[in-house]
Amino acid sequence: MNGQLILTPQKVKQKLKRIALQILERNHEKKIILVGIEKRGLELAQLLAEDLQVFGRHAVAVASIRINKENPLEKPVVSTIEHEALLQSTLIIVDDVQNSGRTMMYAIRHFLDLPIPSIQTCILVNRGHNLFPVHCDYVGLALSTTLQEHVRVEVNGREVEVYLS
Questions:
Q1: What angle do the packed helices 9-26 and 40-56 form, to 10 degrees?
Q2: pLDDT (tens digit per residue) in 113-154
Q3: Among 6, 18, 36, 110, which is most exposed with the fewest C-beta within 10 angstroms?
Q4: Dist CA 129 CA 32 (whole Å)
Q5: Cβ-based burial of 77 (10 A; exposed 0-12, middle 13-18, buried ≥19)
Q6: How many CA atoms lie within 13 A of 107 on its CB side?
């Protein structure tokens, strides 16, 4: 792979376990729904759900949300979660890398018309180049990068690697 490996699969597993424990600590005894932004955000949400079930010993629902990341207004945002299921749940939106915050902002916007008790955000790598007022509640790695550098998350089954190029 091109680029410098900055998170090995073992380090990613450690970060996801830490995030899972933080989620459970903050949302003790609450129903949790993870909504992963397709494609890698969904894959990370599924891995995170496994850790949440091990540590929390209760089921965690996982759903997806599809957003056109290049032009979010071009196509409607689509999610696979039934809106009724959200009414008594903590919704946690999961993605792989936050660059400007635009994708996360549109994901949050999709759910704002619903009376959801709590919306939280989770990101594996935060680059810190926010153009939108989005603060992530759970961050695996905060990484200072230049605008020319690119962070790439690769998921192969249960193995996740993060590269900087």
A1: 60
A2: 888 999 999 999 998 777 778 889 999 999 988 888 889 999
A3: 18
A4: 29
A5: middle
A6: 33
How far apart are alpha carbons 104 and 110 in whole angstroms? 10
Parent domain of 73? 4-164
| 95 vs 138: CA distance, rounded Å | 11
CA distance 164 to 64: 26
Give residue 48's Cα distance to chain centre.
9
User: Considering just the CA atoms, what is the radius of gyration of the chain in Å?
Assistant: 15
- Dihedrals phi, psi of 25, to nearest 5 degrees: -65, -40
Query: CATH number of the domain that 61 lies in?
Result: 3.40.50.2020
Domains identified in the chain, total number: 1
Q: State how far the Cα of 28 lies from the Cα of 88, in Å rounded to an integer.
A: 14
